[in-house]
């Protein structure tokens, strides 16, 4: 006889949307279980290599779709373990975006001012700090100098990094073995566990069904620790509240697969997907021009040759984050490091006479990879992604032992999106090619289509039921007791790294989830301090709680 477990709250996923909600609900007295598809690794488990079975292949989920590929975290801590820890707040104009629907995408209740106290809670919890120029790496300094040479501005990016621990090893995407990255493994998750939450790695949620009491039964498979195509078990857990935070590539798939049992899903589930308008360019620098034009030197006879030294984005140019500019013409440009693999495969040869992403000329530029500088564009796309029918299990058909899958996302960039990319590409060339500093080409889309490391909006909040899957409290329309708090809830592209906004929205959603849990008989309160005990963020947020718990 199969026994179904019970809990008050079941959280699917342990990234920002899952860890934050799990902490607050557990701290408030609820019984909380977190199911995470990936492994639970610590600092000593993070490897500095790309071998199959290393942390690099175990903690990533790379899903290739039709016209779009998604790269995200697949581990306890989710994207916070593999991201570059850049934590800017979204520009004010983002919340007024209209996009393809021709009217404001965001709920009326959410704007930059309304989100500010929740941003502050996240900044206190991780914490987030602004780097000074002394902490900027060679590549960040070079990009800043190139921007200045081109008459542009550049600034250090706010980050969740302990600078005293950071060794500038540039292995952030494989997890930080020096515990310098302030991932969720060091704040919300251990605090949730301390308050009784149970985190179960290698548990992949498949679907939800509704119980007679109005609660939900969550069906999961247990995934093999080495071969993610293999399931070693299955089970069910009953919960009064379910929080979906599996990521924008997985949350809509779970809901689509649940529709035959739960009933029709809102139209916007699996639609309006945004890749955050992302695009990458590689500049291949002329070392002599770096010295002559920018006056830079490492002090050892080399001007730069330092692509491999540092950490993710340190410096960004925000000149185009201007709310007076037309929609689809606003974007940020960040200096970035992508490790060998994705970066070396997708980078193209400038001015190639033959193939652009392979061949003899490509071999030559790869030989000079230490003189590369990667520029990351985050722009305004048109929410043109749509999810097709869900695969038999999980969010993708696994085509390798780890990491790689074929997913149901379909993406055809519109003229608006393409125009924004073209404007950003031209800006990158103007900055990086000026006076012969370098040669620049965007990454190819011929191999895996467009690509994003920040998938968003596939189950988004909004006021209009015809274009949003969730209300402004993050509750799934027509299915009370199911909440979504990951990147899929963000209505559209943010023009900056989205982690800070995803986290702030999750913080903002908690009071409404607490109220819903109480209405379902769960004894839980709201008002926990920051995971480390700090209370200034809580004091600032508490005045907003009544408006979030009563319609």
Automatic annotation (TrEMBL):
Domain FAD dependent oxidoreductase: 8-42
E.C. designation(s): 1.1.3.6, 5.3.3.1
Keywords linked to the UniProt accession: Cholesterol metabolism, FAD, Flavoprotein, Isomerase, Lipid metabolism, Oxidoreductase, Steroid metabolism, Sterol metabolism
Cofactors demanded by this protein: FAD
Organism superkingdom: Bacteria
Domain Glucose-methanol-choline oxidoreductase C-terminal span(s) in chain numbering: 451-506
Record GO biological process: cholesterol metabolic process
Pathway: Steroid metabolism; cholesterol degradation
GO terms for MF: cholesterol oxidase activity; flavin adenine dinucleotide binding; steroid Delta-isomerase activity
Record-annotated Glucose-methanol-choline oxidoreductase N-terminal domain positions: 68-259
InterPro entries xrefs: Cholesterol_Oxidase (IPR052542), FAD-dep_OxRdtase (IPR006076), FAD/NAD-bd_sf (IPR036188), GMC_OxRdtase_N (IPR000172), GMC_OxRtase_C (IPR007867)
Family per similarity comment: Belongs to the GMC oxidoreductase family.
Name used for this protein in its record: Cholesterol oxidase
